Amino acid sequence: MIGKLTGVIDYRTGDHVMIDVRGVGYIVYCSDRTLAALPGPGEAVALYTDLLVREDLMQLYGFTSLVEKEWHRLLCSVQGVGAKVSLAILGALGPEGVSRAIALGDWAAVKAAKGVGPKTAQRIVLDLKDKAPTVMAMGSTSTFQHEETMIEAGDPEAAAPVAPARRSRPPTSAAAASAGALSALSNLGYGPSEAAAAVAEAAAQAPEAGEAELIRAALRLLAPKG
């Protein structure tokens, strides 16, 4: 199993990139959102990967975080959902958006992805709702750290550090805040599903909120009404 690739982008197309890893080129399929976050040809990149093996097919799929990779694995476990549909959902919503939609039971958000009908969207939410808390809790440790990974000594590119894919904001901000809030609510005795739904709703209302703000907002949502 190929779980991660670190190398240099050789070329990119509309649905995949080729990553040169010490002279071996790997074709890696990615969601539109992930492709948009990647650097250009000739630049260094690191991606988590999932290998699909069938009798007549072997394909690699790439992800910028373990949360994205885990959602891909779970989405593909749902009847009627293949890799193409999974990437469409992740491309439309992003891993954090998928977490929120499934935790909240928002199948309409899932249906907004290209190629996803209402029955499939409802099945995804129903089948995966109990998985949302576990995946959301991965958020604080799943994204790549901003550290330099050097290619092994002796490689002609050894002087060039291999950096993670570019991001539009700090790598663990929203995911880490949600994961931390979820952990805090669990420690307070709230069940995983209700805690995940409250954190997801709070995050949807205030996408830039920090962990403490999410905890306070989620607690207000969980407070008995009346």
Automatic annotation (TrEMBL):
Q: Name one GO molecular function term.
A: DNA helicase activity
Q: Where in the cell is it found?
A: Cytoplasm
Span list, region Domain I: 1-64
Cross-referenced InterPro entries: DNA_helicase_Holl-junc_RuvA_I, Hlx-hairpin-Hlx_DNA-bd_motif, NA-bd_OB-fold, RuvA, RuvA_2-like, RuvA_C, RuvA_C_sf
Q: Which SMART domains match?
A: HhH1
Region annotated Domain III sits at: 173-226
Mostly located where? cytoplasm
Query: Helix-hairpin-helix DNA-binding motif class domain: which residues?
Result: 73-92, 108-127
Q: Which Pfam families match?
A: HHH_5, RuvA_C, RuvA_N
UniProt keyword annotations, A-Z: Cytoplasm, DNA damage, DNA recombination, DNA repair, DNA-binding, Hydrolase
For whether the record's keyword set contains Secreted, the answer is no
Matching entries from Gene3D superfamilies are given as: 5' to 3' exonuclease, C-terminal subdomain, DNA helicase RuvA subunit, C-terminal domain, Nucleic acid-binding proteins
| SUPFAM superfamilies registered for this protein in UniProt | DNA helicase RuvA subunit, C-terminal domain, Nucleic acid-binding proteins, RuvA domain 2-like
* Quaternary structure annotation from Swiss-Prot or TrEMBL: Homotetramer. Forms an RuvA(8)-RuvB(12)-Holliday junction (HJ) complex. HJ DNA is sandwiched between 2 RuvA tetramers; dsDNA enters through RuvA and exits via RuvB. An RuvB hexamer assembles on each DNA strand where it exits the tetramer. Each RuvB hexamer is contacted by two RuvA subunits (via domain III) on 2 adjacent RuvB subunits; this complex drives branch migration. In the full resolvosome a probable DNA-RuvA(4)-RuvB(12)-RuvC(2) complex forms which resolves the HJ.
Q: What does this protein do?
A: The RuvA-RuvB-RuvC complex processes Holliday junction (HJ) DNA during genetic recombination and DNA repair, while the RuvA-RuvB complex plays an important role in the rescue of blocked DNA replication forks via replication fork reversal (RFR). RuvA specifically binds to HJ cruciform DNA, conferring on it an open structure. The RuvB hexamer acts as an ATP-dependent pump, pulling dsDNA into and through the RuvAB complex. HJ branch migration allows RuvC to scan DNA until it finds its consensus sequence, where it cleaves and resolves the cruciform DNA.
Question: Which comment does the entry carry about domains?
Answer: Has three domains with a flexible linker between the domains II and III and assumes an 'L' shape. Domain III is highly mobile and contacts RuvB.
Membership in a protein family: Belongs to the RuvA family.
Q: Which HAMAP family match?
A: DNA_HJ_migration_RuvA
Q: Spell out the protein name for this chain.
A: Holliday junction branch migration complex subunit RuvA
Q: Which organism is it from?
A: Lutimaribacter marinistellae
